[in-house]
């Protein structure tokens, strides 16, 4: 174990000695008191070459996705598949029930017609899209989840109150606990900590 | 990239110094005015010539053109009030454009004058022989009289104008006094105004367009007309913003984020129109009552059938699948093309509503269609443009302006 004066590393080492906490390092986390500082720091951290960056904020901060390089959500493509499935289901169901399985002339209308099949088709497309969106949002976010390593961070609870957290995750290829903690401090983060979990 | 909600002091710094720069330069303004004046003069002269040559055709084309610009004005009026009531921040930078489109609506009272003299060229109920012979028309004989029709139309314009001037005045006042009270007063007018514009718009659509076929009934037709207007309004707003951008004006103030939102609105209103159009079609198809089905029956013979069949594609499928994508809405070229396209298909739609009654076997395009559209567009355009002479292009006194300038889509 090398000697270091970095308090973030020291705390991790002390925890190790006492046998509390996991050996596995999750990330280096730091906090900011202004959203503008978070965005600016996020951009600078990204410019240093980090790729696995995350941010935790009490409210949506404009520009943070772009600053830390979070790509635009792909959920739209999944949802349109849900919508198409809904459209197909509705059309097939209405056609099969009305024209094949139990043909019955009602009000002199044809056994199948796009005109009256569109409203249920629309409804089913909306329903399938909504369910797909809901399920995929949960699945893609890894929910439900009762524990997250970021909770080990001292000020984690303040991310839902008055602080803006910046995270550089340990699986980042450029990650090195000591160096990353220094980088975090150099972009102005307070309370920088190596978080295990 | 500073955040919107954290700049209470920011806003106050700008104030007077910035509002001066939001003024359109006089040289540019007079250039625009001259161009519009020239267009107005040419098209008015053309229309007078057309009227002498073929008065029937003139009034028919003029009705479409008049309803087209009025629909845009009604939609602008509606959405200005929506901005005030919802307290929208994103739209503040282009709200003055919306307001200046809105204030072109009262000039419809002037544009209606030719129609008032030509009712008997358009509306079959003005003919006493037809009015007496048809049962539906006998029942409506007290409502559908020349005088009452003209009186009603001026009633609509009077009511709308009262609201429009009241709201416009507050917005202009806020430019200089930067008071929250102007916003509050404008909101007070806006709530009943929303009701007014839908009721008046519906009645106006019944009068101006539906009585061309006076035995036809469709209660949703008013919303159909208003929905047409909303599509054309957002398309026009996008084109106006892009034109200003091309000229190097307000490039920073109306940025990609604002265009993205305008694109969303254009997309949403395209869907709204489709909803109205399809609802009307579905109910008429389902009930299958001659009074109602005649509308579509009259749009099936000859080449009208092709237009009727292509309208769902032109007005829904094509714009829907292009505008649904985020990159398309954020690409100013695609957005501009789609806006121009939407303006054209809305006109085509109104043309398809009016013209089959007069030309049952297919559209007969006439140069008067363009000349009459030239008159209504250039006259309303002049009113729109005249506002920039005195007033800023951006509601510089609005307290949400700073927020709007830094607005971003999440």
Helix-strand blueprint:
The complex is a heterodimer of chains A (197) and B (410).
Chain A: H1 7-18, E1 25-32, H2 35-47, E2 53-56, H3 64-68, H4 75-101, H5 114-140, E3 164-169, H6 177-186, E4 190-196
Antiparallel strand pairs in A: 1-3, 1-4, 2-3
Chain B: H1 8-21, H2 26-53, H3 55-86, H4 92-102, H5 108-117, H6 119-122, H7 128-133, H8 135-139, H9 146-177, H10 180-208, H11 221-246, H12 256-287, H13 290-297, H14 304-323, H15 326-329, H16 332-354, H17 367-390, H18 401-405
Helix pairs in contact in B: 2-3, 2-17, 3-4, 3-5, 3-10, 3-11, 3-16, 3-17, 4-11, 4-17, 5-9, 9-10, 10-11, 11-12, 11-16, 12-14, 14-16
Structure description:
The complex is a heterodimer of chains A (197) and B (410). Chain A is α+β, with helices and mostly antiparallel strands and 197 residues long. Chain A has two domains: 7-68 and 146-196, no CATH class; 75-140, no CATH class. Helix content of chain A is 48%, strand content 13%. Chain A contains six helices and four strands, in the order αβαβαααβαβ. In chain A, helix 4 (75-101) packs antiparallel against helix 5. Chain A starts with 6 loop residues before the first helix and ends with a strand. The relative contact order of chain A is 0.27. The mean pLDDT of chain A is 87. Chain B has 410 residues and is mainly α. Chain B has one domain (26-384). Chain B contains 18 helices and no strands. At the A-B interface, helix 2 and helix 5 of A face helix 12 of B.
């Amino acid at each position: 174990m090398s000697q270091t004066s970095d308090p973030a590393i020291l705390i991790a080492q002390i925890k190790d000695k006492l046998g509390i906490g996991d050996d596995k390092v999750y990330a280096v986390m730091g906090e900011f008191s202004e959203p503008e500082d978070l965005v600016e720091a996020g951009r600078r951290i990204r410019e240093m070459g980090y790729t696995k960056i995350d941010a935790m904020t009490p409210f949506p901060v404009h520009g943070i996705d772009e600053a830390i390089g979070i790509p635009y959500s792909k959920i739209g493509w999944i949802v349109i598949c849900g919508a198409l499935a809904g459209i197909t289901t509705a059309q097939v169901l209405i056609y099969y029930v009305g024209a094949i399985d139990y043909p019955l002339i009602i009000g002199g209308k044809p056994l199948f017609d796009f005109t009256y099949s569109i409203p249920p088709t629309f409804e089913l497309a909306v329903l399938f899209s909504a369910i797909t969106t809901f399920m995929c949002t949960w699945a893609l976010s890894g929910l439900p989840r009762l524990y997250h390593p970021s909770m080990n961070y001292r000020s984690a609870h303040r991310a839902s109150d008055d602080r803006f957290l910046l995270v550089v995750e340990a699986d980042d290829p450029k990650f090195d606990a000591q160096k990353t903690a220094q980088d975090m401090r150099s972009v102005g983060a307070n309370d920088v900590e190596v978080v295990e979990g | 990239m500073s955040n919107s909600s954290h700049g209470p002091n920011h806003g106050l710094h700008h104030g007077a110094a910035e509002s001066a720069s939001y003024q359109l330069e006089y040289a540019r303004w007079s250039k625009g005015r001259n161009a519009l004046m020239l267009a107005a003069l040419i098209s008015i002269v053309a229309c007078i010539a057309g009227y002498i040559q073929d008065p029937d055709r003139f009034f028919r084309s003029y009705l479409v053109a008049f309803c087209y610009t009025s629909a845009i004005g009604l939609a602008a009026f509606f959405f200005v009030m929506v901005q005030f009531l919802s307290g929208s921040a994103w739209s503040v930078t282009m709200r003055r454009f919306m307001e200046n489109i809105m204030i072109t609506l009262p000039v419809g009272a002037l544009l209606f004058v030719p129609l008032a003299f030509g009712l008997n060229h358009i509306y079959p109920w003005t003919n006493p022989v037809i009015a007496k012979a048809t049962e539906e028309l006998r029942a409506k004989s007290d409502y559908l009289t020349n005088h009452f029709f003209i009186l009603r139309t001026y009633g609509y314009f009077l009511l709308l104008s009262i609201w429009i001037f009241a709201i416009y005045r507050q917005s202009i006042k806020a430019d200089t006094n930067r008071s929250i009270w102007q916003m509050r007063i404008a909101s007070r007018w806006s709530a009943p105004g929303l009701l007014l514009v839908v009721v008046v718009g519906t009645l106006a659509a019944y009068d101006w367009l539906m009585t061309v076929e006076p035995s036809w009934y469709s209660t949703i037709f008013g919303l159909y007309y208003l929905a047409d207007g909303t599509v054309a309004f957002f398309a026009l707003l996008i084109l106006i913003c892009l034109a200003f951008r091309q000229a190097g004006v307000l490039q920073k103030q109306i940025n990609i984020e604002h265009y993205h939102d305008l694109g969303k609105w254009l997309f949403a209103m395209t869907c709204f129109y489709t909803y109205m159009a399809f609802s009307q079609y579905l109910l008429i198809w389902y009930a299958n009552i001659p009074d109602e089905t005649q509308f579509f029956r009259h749009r099936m013979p000859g080449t009208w059938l092709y237009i009727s069949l292509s309208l769902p594609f032109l007005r829904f499928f094509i714009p829907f699948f292009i505008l649904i994508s985020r990159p398309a809405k954020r690409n100013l070229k695609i957005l501009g093309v789609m806006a121009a396209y939407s303006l054209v298909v809305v006109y085509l739609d109104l043309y398809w509503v009016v013209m089959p009654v007069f030309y049952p076997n297919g559209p007969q395009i006439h140069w008067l269609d363009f000349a009459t559209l030239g008159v209504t567009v250039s006259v309303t355009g002049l009113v729109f443009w005249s506002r920039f002479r005195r007033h800023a292009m951006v509601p510089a006194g609005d307290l949400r302006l700073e927020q709007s300038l830094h607005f971003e889509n999440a």
